[in-house]
Amino acid sequence: MTTAHPPIPANYWLSSLIPTTNRFEHLPDSTPAITESSSQPPEQKSPPIFVCGVQNIRPLQNLLDQIARDRYSIKLLGSDQVKIQPSSSTSECPRKERSAADVKCCNCGGSHPTNYKGCVVYKQLQQKLFPQLRPCPVPPATPATQPPPQTSFSPDNSSPSKRFLRPSRRLFPTPPPAIDSSSTPCSSLLFSFRSLPSGIHAGDPPPAYGYNVKPPHGPHHQNSLMSSPLRIALWNANGLAQRKLEVETFLTSDNIDVLLISETHFTSTSFFRISRYSFYDTQHSDGAAHGGSAILIRSSLRHHPQASYSTDSIQATTIQISDASGPLNLTALYCPPKHRISSSTFLTFFRSLGSRFIAGGDFNSKHPWWGCRTTNPKGQQLYQCVSSLRLHPITTREPTYWPSDPRRQPDLLDFALSKGVPLHQITISSHLGLSSDHTPVLITLSSTFSSACSSSSLFNPLTDWHAFRLLLDQSLPYNLPVKSPTDMEAAVQTLTTTIQSALWKTTPPLPPRPPLTSLSPLIQNKIHEKRRLRKNWQLTRLPADKTRLNRIIKELRTLIQTDRARRTSDYLSRLSPNAPSSHDLWKATRRLKAPSPYISPIKDDAGR
């Protein structure tokens, strides 16, 4: 431990015994006389004010300018924290801040600092020093890449917040300690800050996702692109089989494209299917009905399943889609809470996902970096992996796990980690659409994705074969010379082109598939009431509110089952065995009695 030594007095006794010479002794002394300091203690400044959860900084700046323009200054600490501190210069302070007239650039003489990158002379010097550098081309503005519109400040805005992630060195800093507003002279200013909006809103919700119509048959047949935002939801089901009806309703009502599911409780004998969606799952490594992960993706999206990852500590399901930047892996994972996972295990898993991925699910890992209330050992190991690979957490910073026991505190367990995905394309928000002990998290990805490849047949059930026969007789040449291999190739090419052209002219495109059946108004009202009661229970955690929530969940499940039985009965009543062209009854019977086709695995030369 070091101790501070007292200063040496001016009349130190040893100073008179040491001869010194100073050539400046004969010069006049221009040092001002040292006056004794005042015995009054200095006036203490007010402590700074910390405001957390700020997403739109402009209303805060306007409010600060109106209330205390000369007394307070604002400083941005992170993506959602602001520090408001008293100004260093007051009317009594002799030291004033520099004005714009005192600042002068050494390069051009302008009223800005010398290191200002907008200086004209500075730009010319940079071009001479680095002539090989080329300016980065600015991509054209598209509806998918335009920034969100600025929203007006409204204290009564109560719509659900949608936070935009920003690239920052400290994405999710730890909130500072709270300050008692009664001990500060600006309690009115603190009260005004409470009326600020808690998040930035992205304007209108994305348009409803309709069924992509297959391109018409013809020479311009190619893969289509989906320009609508991709809506990804991640959710811990805590048993998926018994929640099939509400999952189907959730996918239809909220236009979900991809659903990343954790804790499915599936085994090798489980079966799960939803119309117009493809299902991929990974069971626990021991084969028991616990843990597991799954992915539900819209069948109209072009995708490919990847190798699954199944251990005692991590169960992950991965599919690959394509956007404008290339392949993108989407992974649903589940990490059981009882297993310890080292950072090396996390590193091995995330490196297997490639250079571009979004991995979301129930990590059971707590750390303040992604918004948790506390820290656990698994969260510390995951944080080391995230820092090492420079992954970006995609999180709402709100609790996603709501235990039924009121003695246990809610916390954030469901989030996603991304790599190689621009953060300005990601929007995240909480959702109240499903009824397990975890709330879903909705991620909107603004990009252009490839749709599923349509069939490339030359004809369909609407082909007019009589017109095709007449057109082929009129356009097919019969006197082609075939005397050499070149003539043979030309004749084959002419025949092929003539047949294709005749089929394209006599084959109209198939009509688009009908949209999914919309929900009845009664079911929609019940869904809205369930979400309202769920939000109320999350705020109060009272047993009476939990009872009302359970009652409305049971009523909604009964309504969905009744509506599904009614639609099935209507479909069966419309079947007719006497229809000469449609054969509805025969087609329905064939679908029920058709055996499941066996898809053989792809093996290499060694048989693996």
Automatic annotation (TrEMBL):
This is Endonuclease/exonuclease/phosphatase domain-containing protein. Residues 152-161 have a biased composition (Polar residues). It comes from Menopon gallinae. GO terms for molecular function: catalytic activity. Gene3D superfamilies: Endonuclease/exonuclease/phosphatase (3.60.10.10). Residues 134-150 have a biased composition (Pro residues). InterPro entries: Endo/exonu/phosph_ase_sf, Endo/exonuclease/phosphatase. The lineage of its organism: Eukaryota, Metazoa, Ecdysozoa, Arthropoda, Hexapoda. Residues 36-47 have a biased composition (Low complexity). Pfam families: Exo_endo_phos. It comes from the Eukaryota. Residues 234-438 form the Endonuclease/exonuclease/phosphatase domain. Residues 27-47, 134-180 are annotated as: Disordered.
